[in-house]
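Sequence design from tokenized structure. All designs in this work follow the same two-part layout: the structure record, then the generated sequence. An example of the structure record is given first.
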């Protein structure tokens, strides 16, 4: 009982310590996102990335991916990097089953009021032409 009350107290204190940015405080805001998926044979891979920014902050970013293979190998990874100049995320997903494979990659970036997100996806079955798709979105916050 004491642990639950203590945890609840910390949760309330953490919630009250956050300073929200209200819509009235942001005179320019934007969002961007892209995603894609590929599938071939018993493989599939998908990635997605989104970003948002307000003229009064450095922005937020989210990215992720997943892959699956019926009888082969699948892997996915996401990296998020932040430095004083930009916020960047990259997600990759790949599934392989013998010569058949599917893969997807999404890159998302917030830098100096410019938001960008692009996704490339591809699937391939041996003996057939690869299937490819690309999506890209960007926006610039007004000054």
């Amino acid at each position: 009982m004491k642990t639950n009350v203590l945890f609840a107290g910390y949760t309330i204190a953490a919630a009250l310590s956050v300073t929200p940015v209200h819509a009235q405080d942001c005179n320019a805001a934007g969002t961007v996102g892209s995603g894609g998926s590929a599938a071939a044979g018993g493989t599939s891979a998908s990635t997605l990335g989104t970003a948002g920014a307000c003229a009064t902050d450095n922005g937020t970013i989210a990215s992720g991916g997943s892959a699956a293979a019926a009888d082969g190998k699948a892997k996915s990874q996401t990296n998020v990097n932040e430095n004083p100049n930009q916020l960047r995320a990259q997600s990759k997903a790949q599934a392989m089953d013998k010569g058949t494979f599917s893969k997807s990659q999404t890159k998302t970036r917030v830098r100096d009021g410019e938001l960008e997100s692009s996704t490339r996806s591809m699937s391939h079955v041996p003996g057939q032409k690869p299937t490819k798709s690309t999506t890209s979105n960007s926006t610039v916050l007004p000054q």
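Helices lie at 2-17. We note this feature because it recurs in several other targets discussed in the main text.
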